[in-house]
Amino acid sequence: MSEVSAEDFAPILAQVRQFVRTKVVPRESEILATDAIPDDLRRQATDMGLFGYAIPQQWGGLGLDLTQDVELAMELGYTSLALRSMFGTNNGIAGQVLVTYGTEEQKEQWLERIASGEVVASFALTEPGAGSDPAGLRTKATRDGDDWVIEGQKRFITNAPLADLFVTFARTREPGPDGPGIAVFLVPAGTAGVTVGPKDAKMGHEGSWTADVTFSEVRVPADSLVGGSEDVGYRAAMSSLSRGRVHIAALSVGTAQRALDESVAYAATATQGGTAIGDFQLVQAMIADQQTGVMAGRALVRDAAAKYVSGEDRRIAPSVAKLFCTEMVGRVADNAVQIHGGTGYMREVPVEHIYRDVRLLRLYEGTSEIQRLIIGGGLVRAAKKRS
To answer: How many CB atoms lie within 10 A of CB 56?
Structure first.
């Protein structure tokens, strides 16, 4: 349940909307050119509590639930997606592992600093041979006296070059009937044997830094094991990813709305042969498809978030929302470039970087293909149980 009433949430949402549209949107070219979020914008985001909006209030956060989280995400999606990435892992896949599964001592040690932005937490799950399916991971954690020794390599880890804490997934035993044998460890970035590679050169998402992280005989104490249990890991990964999928779906809706707004504004003012291109019916048809996708996505995200919060559906609905919305924003962005014509292919034009940015949304936190397997497989298994 949310710790913030609808009445109190309204000004928070309005403040975020104003920040995004008046402070961040005008500086998108700067973010693109420097491949970084400007320090003053980071400070403003920190002061607004954005590093901890989904962390409970007892740990210094705002305590928003997922139905409120998605409303914020739809606003944050309206600008460079790197802004959201800056604090996304603190509130989302990394922070929620601690909120839901951490021991009281672990929460005491980390959550307030995560919520304040003093600590940037990274979610170290993906590996060269294990992406959307965590069951395939190969990073190992071996017990040695009172310590654990971690060995392995992670890939595409968001915020890794800036991270203070790696929420690290490692295999403690081979998978078997008693479970997948995956545990989660809290590994401070300064721990001996932790090496962060150079930041990745990506197609888009300028300003959001990812990198490889190598763990070479990294020794951590027993109290680094999240929840104090080896069996917590896989559940933690699945629940964090499921919640994160609804958030990414909402982010997609926000970006689709921006692409639609840019398309309508351009169609109303750009001319061909003295006629506004928005008067051409084929352009209107593309805009109609964009609007339809945005509205359907927004309704779906809100429904999936409500089902997650109530506990009615924390598996199928999140995958449905992520699949539909991330595919939808790809089509909306493609139409936006088409409506802009050659102009849409130029750097410095918003729809150009939107087109590049949204391609990632179909890949991370579970590819579209993985979502289809979760949805289809889940429905069939449920039907078998009923028969």
So the answer is: 16
Q: What does the pLDDT look like over 230-281, one tens digit per residue?
A: 988 888 878 888 999 999 999 999 999 999 999 999 999 999 999 999 999 9
Predicted confidence at residue 129, as pLDDT, reads 85
Q: Percent of the chain having pLDDT more than 90?
A: 91
Residues contacting residue 22 through CB under 8 Å, at least 6 positions apart: none
* CA separation for the pair 345, 327 (Å, rounded): 20
Alpha helices in 19-103 (DSSP H): 28-34, 39-47, 66-76, 81-91, 95-101
Task: Give this prediction's pTM.
Answer: 0.96
Q: Which residues have a catalytic role annotated?
A: 365
Contacts of 116 (CB under 8 A, 6+ apart): 46, 51, 52, 60
Burial class for 15, CB neighbours closer than 10 Å (0-12, 13-18, 19+): middle
Which long-range contacts (C-beta less than 8 Å, at least 24 apart) are formed by 336-345? Answer: 336/259, 336/260, 336/262, 336/263, 336/290, 338/286, 339/263, 339/266, 339/267, 339/277, 339/283, 339/286, 339/287, 340/262, 340/263, 340/266, 340/270, 343/266, 343/270
